[in-house]
User: Fold this.
Amino acid sequence: MQMPQELESAPITLGGELVALRIQRLAAMRRATYRSRSYALIAAGACAVAGVRLAVMAVRHVLAAGWGTRAAAYALLALLAGCAAVCFWQRAVQLSAEIRRSISPQPTTPPDFSTLGNGPS
Assistant:
């Protein structure tokens, strides 16, 4: 999930409703990204389990009755479920990388600590 353009270009000011609104939107986007990653992981797992189950059904049908329409359908569906599991897994990896990426921009200048003292005297 990419940040909307108006949210990225919104001026960052200290205090005021604009900062609070921006923080709320960023938090909502972060929660949505976590939720999307969870859905992708669950879908990948479900497709993987379905693919294995269909492959087992195809093998059993071939051993019992030989290759037929039903065995070919099981094998094809197992292949499709495996492909879907891989796609969902890749999407979950992409979302994880997006979550790890920092939302706040890197400062352009190093911080100035010259005005700070050495602590309490």
